[in-house]
Amino acid sequence: MLTWLRSLRDKWSNWCGDRDLEVAIRRHLTSNGYFGQTAKLQNVRLAAVQRPGWLQIYRFDALARVRPETPNEDDNVIDSSPTFRQLFGVAREDARHNQSTIRTFESNEARRELFQEWSVDLIQLRNSV
User: In what order do the strands lie in the sheet with 84-94?
Assistant: First the structure.
């Protein structure tokens, strides 16, 4: 029973809740050299908002598998072991213009810097980044 409750808590914690945002994040990961469809999105949280709510900034973590480079004709060796990366991301959604801007980093400090830049004059939630 306790393990079932823990698994339920983990599912709730890692649930995105916004299908359009999840698709945009996965599309961003795919276009940047990762397998976006199989990436594990974690801790997708609203971090800042501008009244009346049209502009929202989310933070998220992702565990994504790196897409291997295509081998050259001279290079017959293909690395068979998959490589995973822990990524830290920020998503900015502007519903007025129907735009989503997503950036991912390999360090939390770089994400924090971009969040500080994007969230000027916005209402920041506690423990946002």
Answer: 99-105, 84-94, 55-65, 40-50, 123-124
